[in-house]
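Figure 2 data, in text form.
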Amino acid sequence: MLGIGIDIGSSYTKAAAFDGQVRGLKCIKSGWNPKETSAKCMNLLMKKLNIKDCDSGPIVATGYGRNLGGFDKAVTEITCHARGANFMDGRVRTVIDIGGQDSKVISIDEAGNVKDFVMNDRCAAGTGRFIEVMAGILDCEANDLDRLAQGGQAVHFSSTCTVFAESEVVNLISKGTSREDIAAGLFLSVAEKINPMITRVGIRRKVGLSGGLGFSSSLRGELEKLLHTDITPLKDSQYMGAIGAAIIAYERTSQKA
């Protein structure tokens, strides 16, 4: 029996199927209606795996829209990211999750239980949304911005506010600053926003990078310099919340068996 996890995020909705291993993943853009979007994402995953509703067990939802989908159980993204990260790498004790709407630093134990966490959900700076907005100004995608940053020397942004940082980017462009240097500065800005959160929770090694920006080697490099420690990019980082939710769903099927 499969456990299905749905992570209803502000930018993307992700679904995962788990039966002791991750069996399938699906991601679509979040629409204005979380219930419809999550149902569509789940149905696409089931179609991809060639399974029917009767072949799956409980469905656990997480993310900002977790209470709007009408699924079997809603679990916080803190818990789900912790469980997902623990499954991907059991040595990880600190999870840095940078999503579209918020960023989190989570301290976990050897079983993936949450020991402590801090969350930024009041400002777009330090989130994937910040990078998406800035990539738009530089006429590229977030992945392209990461590649550009690897060839640049980071400029420093005086403001951590997305709106004011946007003005700074426009000003730098008008002065002829290279896209590479601006891109490097943007990832440095995100890392500097995350750094105080990590300080509050404390570093417990191994450190794993999760969430929508988990792919970014530029961000990882800036964080490693600030923290003076290695950071591991977690596999399928964008799906970490959905994977954690699917694990919890699967455990519910085992308990009922």
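Caption note: Helices lie at 34-49, 77-88, 128-137, 142-149, 162-174, 179-201, 217-227, 240-256.
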